[in-house]
Amino acid sequence: MAAKTTARKWIKICILGILAAFLLYLTVESAFFLETDYGRWIVNRGNVQERLYESIDMLYLFIQFFVLMASLLALTVHALFRVLHPERQPGKIVRFLRKRGLLLALLFTVLLIALLLLIGHNVQTIRTTVETSEVPAALREHHRVGWLGIAAEISFLAALISFVSGIKGRKHAALERRPL
User: Fold this and answer.
1) Domain coverage including residue 164
2) Fewer beta carbons under 10 A from the terminal one: N or C of the chain?
3) Residues 131 and 69 in one domain
4) pTM higher than 0.85, yes or no?
5) Residues 74, 97: one domain?
6) Is the pLDDT of residue 52 over 60?
7) Given its phi and psi angles, is residue 69 left (phi above 0), alpha (psi -120 to 50 degrees) or beta?
8) What is the average per-residue pLDDT within 110-120?
9) Mean per-residue pLDDT for 58-78?
10) 17 and 56 belong to one structural domain
11) CB 55 within 8 A of CB 39
């Protein structure tokens, strides 16, 4: 029995280690592309509008990719740490989330939906903007769509983490109530 548990633990460690290495590579790669696209945006600030808008959109896309990869890397490293050093007592945050159930997940999901609606409105504003001069007319909307996308991504990650924590909390609570 102990050998089987040890083998499972090492399998988890190997899988999480490989996943952490892959996510580290993607995080560094996205940071490189983020720096490159920031340089392109700086160069294209005085350029024609299509190139400016494209460079802004790519910059925000790689910011979102970087945030996603860094978050997944942090969660993977946390899971790897928990496999190596299991926690005996739940911490304050875990107890708080268990007590509240899934309310935080619901709150972040509503926030995500609101942010996605705002993104849709700004994209519609960009589509209806008539570009008539060299001054970019939809520049502010492109920046707003980028920032709202980043906020929506963070809200999605928070909803996902809260949902998983709530499910785990309910599972642990049910196991604690079960008579021996």
Assistant:
1) 90-180
2) C
3) no
4) no
5) no
6) yes
7) alpha
8) 88
9) 87
10) yes
11) no
